[in-house]
Amino acid sequence: MSLELVCPAGNLPALKTAIDHGADCVYMGFRDNTNARAFPGLNFDYAAAQEGVRYAHAKGKKVLLALNTFPQTTTWSRWQQAVDQAAEVGIDAIILADPGLMRYASRTYPGMRLHLSVQGSATNYEAINYYHEHFGIQRAVLPRVLSLAQVEKVIKNTPVEIELFGFGGLCVMVEGRCVLSSYATGESPNTAGVCSPAKAVRWEQTPEGLESRLNNVLLDRYGAEEKAGYPTLCKGRFEVSDETYYAIEEPTSLNTLELLPEMLNMGIAAVKIEGRQRSPAYVEQVTKVWRAAIDMAKRNTENYAVHPAWTTQLDKVAEGQQHTLGAYHRPWK
Amino acid sequence: MIMKLSLGPILYYWTRETLLDFYEQAASWPVDIVYLGETVCSRRHTFRTEDWLHVAGMLAAAGKEVVLSSQALIESESDLKTLRRLCSNGKFSVEANDMGAVRLLSGTPFVIGPHINIYNPHTLEILAEAGAKRWVVPVEMSRQMLADLLEQDTHAMETEIFAYGRLPLAFSARCFTARRYNLPKDDCQFRCLDEPYGLTLKTREGQPFLALNGTQTQSASVYNLLAELESMQGLVHVVRISPQPQHTGDVAALFHAALNGATTPAHAARELAPLMPEAACNGYWYGRPGLDQVAIP
Question: Which residue, among A163, A171, A203, has the nearest Cα to A190 in the 3D structure?
């Protein structure tokens, strides 16, 4: 029974930390908007990518490259070059969302392993099989919208390996189908590789409290005793018919540790940890816990139980200091 | 080239009577193409597939080109069953709003809906090879991005623009309307029926920002490109109006008049203003934040 642990690498120290603490694979992006975490100071230039691949391969681990934004007509050549660079530095698989780019990669590098990014929005096996038939996609990362029963149906009806998000920041929308960020700021994950970009964020202390704004749209206002989180657009408090609440989603993290036995039994190929924008300390903590949990679940699926210390350790680094099973658990919807 | 006018699928949940009444009227509106079907939520059921096919027949008899729109977010086996039925209807072409639909429709002529991400000519080419005859541009694409793309494109596919209505911005597995009423999605009591135009979400200082339409999140402002029709010449073949509960026929008439030179787009835009349920926006077309309204000259 194999279940890969796929950990985030926002930079070289995080990559090494993940490998050293039990990741089977790390995923990274180049230092531009060819990936959906195009944040200032994050990601890998060519030399760092080479060093990351060398480090991981020396320890028998894999490196995946997220190339999961949508190239525009005038910027196409940069995305194409990124595919070429991935092949040159010996990346083990490229994670793609754009069909045009999938065709380029599959024709130019027939031996290259291709994964369908969560940004590809494939939530059903007809869509996944389309990408498999046309571009030889070997693994699909599912958007965080299906229940576990629905995931199982997908697995039974496709030859493509399925990777699920296991932990980290929670997108409440179908990835690749959310342009809320560009509606407010002009930049979305699809086009610019960012959601609620930091350059559009403004914090202001006012008599009503601490206010967070995104391109001047008020996302939230915090009282003195409240802890303010990063102002992601969908996690603010808004008014809907005279009630003020987290109308879309609370600031919360996905944590699916308790679902590991079910994931193993249904044949999930890999679990992904979100958080390339997070620190090496986060990567270390989360990788350690998930390595221990996966090893225990593999040894003894029937008697597996979430160790209370794991939850404590994960809650320390989780967004909003609380967690949810998300869509895998039906009542969340 | 005179651009054609289309009526997009109704994005909201309306009663059976309202739907029947709406399409009876639409038969006489100056629209060339009508898109029909439930694209947002599989729980909505005042119209079943056979009802949509019935209305499709009625509109086709009135001389409209009818296209059946598929659901954007396909989650369950039952969603797939509905999708397969739609794709094999044998009579009307289908608007694919998911790559699963593209797989099922490959080899037949079909339309690519606004929920499939096409941002470059390479991807457009792949879909042209699959049989697509028309594509609806992703809502966040600017005029410049579209012009750049079409300059490289050699497939003579028709291009359609979402030109009027609250913008469909996001889909989720979660139902935000049910959430507002503290109801589970599986027992939502069909509260969407009470919100024929979605629930307006405002910031804590009262600025209308988004609209909750079940599992779909829309803009609160109405995307309105009526004054931009001239800038679409040579790029766009079809201009889409997204239905709203009131005045949709009047909106269609104003777009029609502007398209045919019976009035200037700027004048028509001024007449349209009082028919709009919320402020206008047009930022996406100018490559700006979608909620911006660039002044009409």
Answer: A171
Q: How far apart are CA B215 and CA B174, in angstroms?
A: 6
Q: Are the CB atoms for A265 and B226 separated by under 8 Å?
A: no
Collect all residues with Cβ–Cβ distance below 8 Å to A266 and sequence separation of at least 6.
A148, A151, A152, A155
Q: Positive or negative CA dihedral for B113, B115, B121, B123?
A: negative
| Residue in B79, B82, B120, B213 to test binding to A, most A beta-carbons within 10 Å | B120
User: For B70, which DSSP code?
Assistant: P
Render B218-272 in DSSP notation, one character per residue: EEEEEEE-GGGHHHHTTT-SEEEE---SSSHHHHHHHHHHHHTTSS-HHHHHHHH
- A177 to chain B, any CB pair closer than 8 A? The answer is yes
DSSP A263: H
Q: Which of B169, B172, B287 sits opposite A179 (nearest CB)?
A: B169
Q: Is the pLDDT of residue A208 over 80?
A: yes
Q: What are phi and psi of A26, to 5 degrees?
A: -120, 155
- Interface confidence: ipTM more than 0.95: yes
pLDDT at A137 over 90: yes
User: Which of chain B's residues have a Cβ under 8 Å away from the Cβ of A150?
Assistant: 75-76
Chain B interface mutation, best of A104, A117, A119, A179, highest count of B Cβ atoms under 10 Å: A179
Put simply, whether A103 touches B (Cβ < 8 Å) is yes
- pLDDT tens digits for range B244-266: 999 999 999 999 999 999 998 88
Give the CA radius of gyration of chain B: 18
pLDDT band at B33 (very low <50, low <70, confident <90, very high): very high
- CA atoms in the 13 A half-sphere facing the CB of B146: 25
CB-CB neighbors (< 8 A) of A218 in chain B:
203-205, 207
> Hey, is the C-beta of A183 within 8 angstroms of any chain B C-beta?
yes
**Which of B86, B88, B99, B171 is most worth mutating to test chain A (most A CB atoms within 10 A of its CB)?**
B99
Report the distance separating Cα B252 and Cα B250, nearest Å. 5
Closest residue of chain A to B78, computed from CA coordinates: A150
The residues near B52 (Cβ < 8 Å, ≥ 6 apart) are B36, B37, B38, B68
Q: Is the pLDDT reported for residue A27 higher than 60?
A: yes
* Nearest by CB: B76 against A101, A150, A218: A150
Q: How far is CA A142 from CA A95, B15, B42, in A?
A: 12, 34, 20
Q: Cα–Cα distance between B146 and B185 in angstroms, integer?
A: 37
Residues A273-312 have pLDDT tens digits of 999 999 999 999 999 999 999 999 999 988 999 999 999 9
On average, the pLDDT of chain A sits at: 94
Residues 6+ apart with CB under 8 A from A68: A35, A36, A95, A96, A97, A117, A118, A119, A120
Question: Is A14:A25 a contact under the CB 8 Å cutoff?
Answer: no
